[in-house]
Amino acid sequence: MMKKRIILGLLLFVLAIPILSQPFISGTAPPKPNQLLDLSSPALGVSPESSDPIVTSLTMTAPSTQIIVNSAVSFKVKLAGTWHESIGVVRNQAVTVSGWGLSQQCTTGTDGTCKVTLTAPGTSGQYQVNAQFAGDANHTPSSASVTLNVVSTAKIKVNLQLVAYKVVNVKVDILQGSTVVATRTVTLTPGSRTASMSFTLNAGIYTVRVSGYSIATQTNGPFTIPPDKTVSFNIS
Length: 236
Hints:
The protein is mostly beta strands. The chain has one helix at 2-20; strands at residues 36-38, 55-61, 66-68, 72-83, 86-89, 94-99, 102-107, 113-119, 125-133, 142-151, 153-162, 168-176, 179-188, 194-202, 204-211, 218-225, 229-235.
C-alpha cells in the first residue's frame, strides 16, 4: 500500500510540473513571442498593469517635405507599441498634430493609424510639425515630428540628350494650361550632346514641351510643383 501511495504521489508531481512552470500575468495567457497583435485588445491576451505599461512609439508622414503656401496638407500618424516580447499597433487612442499655430486631433483605428489635415501657412519658410500621444496608465507617451519647407515658388529642371548624329536647335517651353510662361533655346551638336536648364516658377500646374526643326515635338506633364521637378528628353 505504501509503495502504491509513493508511485501515485510521484505521478501527480510529474503532471503538475507543466502547470506550475507556466507564467501568469493578470489572469491572461502570455503573448506569443514576436506575435503581431493589437496591443489595445485584452481579448488577445495582453492585460498590462500601470506599473508595466505598453511602451509606445509614434511615427508621422507628410505627402512631401516641400509644400505650397496656403495648401491643404494631410499628415498620417501611426501608434505602435511593444510589451515584453509582443509587438503591434495601438488603437482607439487620441493623437494631437500641431504646427504653425494650428492643432488637430485624430483617433487611431484598427491599424494604429489616423490622419489630420492642416492648412499650410501663407509665409514661406521651414516649419516643424509635431505629433503627440499623451499616454495613460497602460501606455507610455510618445511623439514624432517632421520639418516641412513651405514655398511659394519651385523649380523645373529640364535635361536634354541628343541621340542622333546631327545639329539641332531645341526650343523648350513651359506651359501653364495652353499659355507659354517661359521659353529657352539651346543648340545640341554631336560634340555637345547634352544640356540642362532650370526654371523657377510660382507654385502651380505645368507642362514641359520641346520642339524644333527636324525633331519630333515631345511633352511631359501636366504636373504640380512644388516639389521641384526634373524632366528628361531624348532628342533624335
